[in-house]
Write a structure and sequence with these properties.
By secondary structure, the protein is mainly beta. Helices cover about 15% and strands about 55% of the residues. About 10% of the residues are buried.
């Protein structure tokens, strides 16, 4: 019997099928499934598994339950799949392709077990948006259809997410849909994902979440809503709202311990973030773009706080060169120091270029633009070094002091009201950072006039240059000039210079006074030789010289008395400050030849005193027209504040006792400051100076 060619082909195929079925039956299908399952699970760190009551048919495999255990990147994994059902095509089964997977309930638990192993270095790969197209991503999945009716995930680990519980459902056929909700610590959280074709969307919310970034932010809480959309090669992220608070940890600079104590801050300072308008982030494959229209950040407590209000930010970064960025920031800075609010200032920041060599520009403007501060230059943002130029200037010191004078007075920096009528201020600094930051500065103040408390001044100017950050040293003398000062008597043509020859702290400087001179009482007071003054020491001393003082001007300070005098004086005032007290030892004033005259008309109280003392009556009669040749006054002030004035006069009254020469001495002992008493400054200034000295 001969078979046709078609029959022979059918017979061969039948024999092949029988052979295949025989081989298939000879190798238990359970072993095949187990081998495939083991290979697939090992890729996900699964070390052990357990199948309960495995069932299989021609194109399905199912089980009552599948238990998985494993370890991956420092975490212990446990998972349970209830009633998993896998549908496959036997022709593609061995390649790992499945038709569908359905799970009645999937539960996974992840617990942090230890430090994750370090990842090996990898070469940089540019991110391609085309590879993120949902259709391409889902096309790589080994299953055509996936359905998890009930999904539950639990995570326990270290901050920032120490306790996470989620439940929801997952389905995928032509579209991918994931819905999750649960708790992050004590805060509700939700997530919804939908993807199909070339578009995807992601939305979520987080409320009252506890956040912690070790060593920076602690005890954080916040709430917010975010959404993500991907379509046609463009990724868009929108953060609708954000309200968060925590505590910023200061274990190191930028603020040292002394500054934090002055601000009444501890090591952990409250920080608050509020996003009023949505934050938009867009990525189109070539460039990232981020925009914030209205946000606020506040750092501090009830006593001292620095707040960035109405914060606007726009940033761009090239997708293929992520180190190239451009950032623009504008905000209003509102500050409160030690319970006293300061005037708000406007702040603008720009940055452009790669992180290793960025061009930066910062500008700050006070109200009415009375003060302008600008910082610009090149900066390495990774190592924080570079070359910067800082400048600050004010062409309207009147407006500036009107805005900051009252707060400075409340803070105790100014002891009395300060009113500036005119003047300009300008400072320029160069900052260089390689291994550490250094700076050099120059300041010029010119044409300043105004009033401090009860005292008016005009023509104040200052020029100086220095270098250093924490410790300063002058690179040229600081020159101070003052045309006129009214402190109860006129002081004019004041000029002084000093230096910081060695690096010294600005709070307790050790200065070298090169010169001091001023016109006083029609003559001059000056420093005859250089002197040092250490503001951090308990003891300082210098000697001032009096030259060609006019006695008439000194006597004129005695308001309410009828006394006239003339003549010229010279002298020395050795001044010491010890433990906050003024001491004068061996101070003196003496008349220059040929002497002068003193004319005193006793008032009614003086007449009453004359009746009680014949010696006083003689002295008052002589002083009606006393022509002196010698006038010496010594001044002594001890540490307890006891003042001893000794006045020696030698001369005659032509109308008394035939013009006979007379010598007499007067001693006065009181508990007052002799220098201030001699100048007859107002009691208010005495109190202010005394408080500073103490």
């Amino acid at each position: 019997m001969h078979l046709t060619q078609a029959c022979r082909k059918r017979l061969v195929i039948l024999l092949l099928l029988v052979t295949a079925v025989g081989w298939y039956l000879y190798h238990p299908i359970g072993n095949i499934l187990e081998d495939q399952l083991q290979k697939g699970l090992q890729r996900f760190g699964v070390e052990a598994y357990q199948l309960d009551r495995l069932h299989f048919g021609i194109d399905t495999v199912s089980a009552d339950r599948l238990l998985l255990r494993g370890h991956l990147w420092g975490h212990n994994l446990k998972a349970s799949l209830l009633s998993p059902v896998i549908t496959f095509d036997w022709r593609t089964f061995l390649t790992g392709k499945l038709r569908s997977v359905r799970v009645a309930q999937f539960t996974v638990s992840i617990t942090e077990a230890g430090v994750a192993p370090k990842k090996t270095a990898t070469t940089h790969t540019d991110l391609s948006v085309d590879e993120l197209v949902p259709a391409k991503l889902m096309g790589r999945l080994p299953v055509r259809s996936l359905q998890i009716d009930a999904l539950q995930a639990d995570y326990r680990g270290e901050p920032p997410f120490s306790d996470l519980h989620l439940s929801g459902a997952l389905s995928y056929q032509q579209t991918l849909s994931l819905s999750l909700s649960g708790m992050l610590d004590d805060s509700p959280i939700s997530l919804q994902l939908h993807a199909a074709g070339n578009a995807a969307s992601l939305a979520g919310s987080l409320g009252g979440a506890g956040l912690s970034i070790p060593d920076i932010i602690e005890e954080g809480k916040g709430s917010g809503r975010a959404s993500l959309n991907f379509a046609n090669g463009q990724l868009k992220v929108q953060l609708d709202t954000l309200l968060a608070s925590g505590k910023f940890t200061f274990d190191t600079p930028p603020l040292d311990l002394g500054t934090r104590r002055w601000l009444q801050w501890g090591n952990r300072v409250p920080v608050k973030v509020n996003l009023a308008d949505p934050l938009h982030i867009t990525f189109d494959g070539d460039q990232w773009t981020g925009t914030v229209q209205n946000a606020s950040i506040a750092l501090g407590n009830d006593q001292s706080e620095i707040a960035l209000q109405a914060l606007q930010l726009h940033t761009t970064m090239a997708g293929t060169q992520p180190d190239k960025t451009r950032v623009e920031i504008s905000t209003k800075v509102a500050s409160t120091l030690r319970g006293h609010p300061l005037p708000p200032v406007k702040l603008f920041v720009e940055q452009e270029g790669p992180y290793e060599n960025s061009t930066v520009h910062l500008s700050l403007l006070t109200p009415s633009d009375s003060l302008e501060v600008a910082l610009s230059g090149q900066l390495n943002l990774q190592k924080m070094h570079g070359d910067l130029q800082l400048s600050a200037q004010s062409s309207d010191l009147r407006a500036l002091t009107e805005s900051i004078g009252q707060p400075l007075r409340k803070l105790g920096i100014l002891g009395a009201p300060l009113l500036i009528d005119a003047g300009t201020f300008e400072i320029h600094s160069l900052l260089t950072g390689i291994d550490h930051w250094t700076q050099s500065s120059r300041v010029e103040i010119a044409g300043v006039s105004g009033q401090y408390g009860d005292y008016r001044f005009s023509g104040f100017s200052l020029v100086g240059a220095w270098q250093g950050l924490e410790n300063l040293r002058t690179t040229e003398p600081v020159i101070i000039n003052l045309e006129h000062l009214d402190i109860g008597t006129d002081v004019s043509e004041v000029s002084s210079s000093f230096t910081l020859p060695q690096p010294t702290s600005l709070t307790t400087p050790n200065i070298a006074i090169g010169s001091f001179s001023a016109m006083l009482f029609g003559g001059r007071v000056f420093l005859p030789e250089t002197a040092t003054w250490d503001f951090g020491a308990n003891h300082n001393a210098l000697t001032l010289r009096a030259q060609d003082w006019q006695l008439a001007r000194i006597v004129a300070l005695q308001h309410g008395t009828d006394i006239q005098a003339d003549g010229r004086l010279e002298g020395a005032l050795p001044i010491k400050i010890t433990d906050g007290r003024v001491i004068i030892h061996n101070g003196y004033l003496r008349a220059l030849p040929p002497g002068g005259t003193i004319r005193y008309m006793p008032n009614e109280s003086s007449h009453n005193l004359r009746d009680s003392s014949s010696e006083l009556d003689l002295a008052l009669n002589l002083l009606r027209d006393f022509h002196y040749e010698i006038l010496n006054s010594t001044v002594e002030l001890d540490k307890s504040g006891k003042l001893l004035l000794s006045l020696s006069l030698a001369g005659n009254n032509p109308n008394q006792h035939g013009g006979q020469s007379v010598n007499f001495n007067i001693n006065v002992e009181q508990n007052i400051d002799p220098l201030l008493q001699s100048l007859l400054l107002s009691g208010k200034l005495i109190d202010n100076i005394e408080n500073r000295l103490q």
